[in-house]
Write a structure and sequence with these properties.
Two copies of one chain form a homodimer.
Chain A lengths: L8 H20 L2 H8 L3 H8 L2 H24 L5 H18 L3 H11 L2 H10 L5 H12 L8 H17 L1 H8 L3 H23 L3
Chain A binds a DNA duplex (30 and 30 nucleotides) through helix 3.
DNA sequence: ATCTTTGTTAACCAAATGGTTAAACTATAC
DNA sequence: GTATAGTTTAACCATTTGGTTAACAAAGAT
């Protein structure tokens, strides 16, 4: 085997592909740019991943499997709904601040090819909302929460946490903030969002 | 002048371009497909719009100027914050149900080229949030609302209203709904979202 | 009638792009 | 050392794609 300096061309390719695909999308990405970015010959991309589609799928799956555990945190642990919302909000926002292209990439490509998520869902059941819904129903019946549907509550949680990252250019425009100011807004949301949600659903 | 049957080739092109660009994005769209879609020769696209970039910008601006008035509704009328939220939520959701590709298209392309919104903002000041913020401050000081920042509240309103459309494939997956079920969920949100927001911020 | 302007088309072109190939190189097995 | 199997590269290829051109058609203007 010929393994010169870096020991793992395959991972270098995946890393470069991740950068290019996540910023430019499937259609905007160029195989040559990925090769340059990885510092290797373009033919290597095909040697390791056959073609653009398969390389893209490798990147997409790796991105999705990085995000899914974060979502499952809120769905499947045993703390109260209230604690879950607090934990999820701070953790998720911190997580995305480290991977800023992730939400937009996934959403964009899921819209481009909606069948993709069907395959993923079939293989691993990456998102199971049943337990969360049951817990909401229980806490509603116990009088801890106002009448609330689990589906809609989860949509609200996702919306409030994810959307600001996806709509960053729009938000920067109307708040007239620069990148630093935007980050400050997001930082505030780590606590504000959970209070906003809890205020709304808590029975008092 | 040569005007045969339809009287307005230019608008046919724009309509076809809208369909193709909004579903496939700038990079995924093909000039030939737009031409076919409009039922005309590809050269006509260049005759009327010079090149792909300019045709795209025409579509983008027309899409944005369709959306902006909807946003300004909430920002600049004289009703109470509470009424504004209710009106905005029902109106906005109804509006997007008629233009389902709009939010995703705008967000996707704004992320691809963030400078775009700077140009738009400079030309027309499409989004002015100042009045809304002042009104929030006032109602907070009057004791109608809990301590709330206008910026963050507006981000929350946008998030809860727009995100579900943008993340449709994801939401369909974890709620296990088909298109019909998804529409039912959205329909519920016309009232649920505003109650959710108002519950959270109203002083009581 | 014919000249001019505007609109429309088919054919064409150069560049970009995903993908292939055949040869060369490297490390290990024998 | 030499065979062998995996790795890497430069050059190449076919197709796609945005864009151009030159000829043609239709409708006023004169």
């Amino acid at each position: 085997m010929a393994r010169t300096k870096d020991e793992n061309t395959e991972e270098q390719i995946l890393e470069a592909a991740k950068n290019v695909f996540q910023t430019k999308g499937m259609d905007g990405a160029r195989m040559q740019e990925i090769a340059d970015n990885a510092g290797i010959n373009k033919a290597m991309l095909h040697y390791y991943y056959r073609n653009k589609q398969l390389l893209f799928e490798a990147v997409f799956k790796s991105a999705f499997s990085l995000l899914a555990p974060q979502l499952n945190k809120i769905l499947n642990d045993d703390s109260s709904i209230e604690d879950k919302i607090r934990n999820f909000t701070t953790n998720y926002i911190s997580f995305i601040m480290k991977h800023p292209y992730l939400p937009n990439f996934i959403i964009q490509e899921l819209n481009r090819n909606p069948d993709f998520i069907i395959t993923i869902q079939k293989n691993n059941t990456l998102l199971n909302i049943e337990k969360f819904k049951a817990q909401v129903d229980l806490e509603v019946s116990q009088g801890n929460l106002k009448p609330t549907k689990g589906d809609q509550l989860f949509i609200n949680i996702l919306s409030l946490n994810i959307f600001p990252f996806v709509a960053k250019p729009l938000i920067k425009a109307f708040t007239k903030e620069d990148d630093k100011g935007f980050e400050r807004l997001i930082e505030q949301r780590k606590t504000e969002v959970s209070e906003f949600i809890i205020n709304s659903i808590k029975q008092h």
